Amino acid sequence: MSRTVRWGVLATGGIAATFTADLLAMKDSGAEVVAVASRTDASAKAFAERFGIGRAYGSWAELVADDDIDVVYVATPHSAHREAAGLALEAGKHVLCEKAFTLNAREARELVALARERGLFLMEAMWTYCNPVIRRMTELVRDGAIGEIRTVQADFGFAGTFGAEHRLRDPSLGGGALLDLGVYPVSFAHLLLGEPDRVQADALLSPEGVDLNTGMLLGWDSGATALLSCSIVGNLPTTASVTGTAGRIDFPHGFFHPERFVLHRSGREPEEITTGPGPQGLSGMQYEAAEVTRALVAGETESPLVPLDGSLAVMRTLDAVRERIGVRYPADDRA
């Protein structure tokens, strides 16, 4: 592939706008946004005009058929990830797909199998894993800075007023706290410890049967545990801590896209770790965009930062949590 990677944006909601703004603001990134698609011409054209994108399509099929597009960014709600990402892969396009990767592990397996069969790049848009502060944290943990991990704590939640008609209350759209917010604490624990050997969970469910407030306890045969929570009815602090036999790492706020953390080591003063100020005005999604661009230029079909086997493992854990708390989506019954 040439050093210019040509992007198509599939969907026009808030996360698509944030990602596109970051991508366009990245100077000398080797990336270009050439087209956008929505389910309606009006939405696609409005998005294209907003960001100065040359082509606007009123259907997903038109976007994936565009020969000038190398990679498609799927920014739909997760209920449509299987359909949208599958459509792009079937058309021979590389894909960056928002998280949660899919509604369930079966859909994730189907996408991964399709990408591997076609020799195409596929990555879950877990921007946390690409964040330079998180990458520095994983380096320190790997190098033994806090010893052997014993506990992980992470939470993500906000109090919202969502009517019964809202997507977050709709089981057919993968509603609830778990896939929207809980995917972050679960992915954080997976990053550090891999797939758990045991999963326990409890939740408050809505009348429609989606989770409003969920607590999870994950366990590993090493003796490590993770205490995780997510909520759409409570303002959780969005913090994370990793405790080891020789120290602790604390993320005081916004662990899923942090600017700093505090390293506590036995016998030493606490150290605040940053990677320097990020680009002004960008959300942090530029790091995942840069990783996709790097991988495609290098001819890679998977990212070492966000490996597909890791995304599959996270989906299995999310499925296990839903089984424990009694949440099912209509997609779970489709073979």
Which SSEs are present, and which pair or pack?
Elements: E1 5-10, H1 14-25, E2 31-37, H2 41-51, E3 55-57, H3 60-64, E4 71-74, H4 81-90, E5 94-97, H5 105-118, E6 122-124, H6 127-130, H7 132-142, E7 149-157, H8 177-193, E8 198-205, E9 211-219, E10 225-231, E11 240-244, E12 247-251, E13 261-265, E14 271-273, H9 286-297, H10 308-325
Helix pairs in contact: 4-5, 5-10, 8-10
Describe this structure in words.
With 335 residues, the chain is an alpha/beta fold. The protein contains ten helices and 14 strands. The chain has helices spanning 14-25, 41-51, 60-64, 81-90, 105-118, 127-130, 132-142, 177-193, 286-297, 308-325; strands at 5-10, 31-37, 55-57, 71-74, 94-97, 122-124, 149-157, 198-205, 211-219, 225-231, 240-244, 247-251, 261-265, 271-273. The strands form two sheets. Strands 8-9-10-7-11-12-13-14 form an eight-stranded mixed beta sheet. Strands 3-2-1-4-5-6 form a six-stranded parallel beta sheet, sandwiched between helices. α4 (81-90) runs parallel beside α5 and α5 runs antiparallel to α10. It is globular and about 60 Å long.
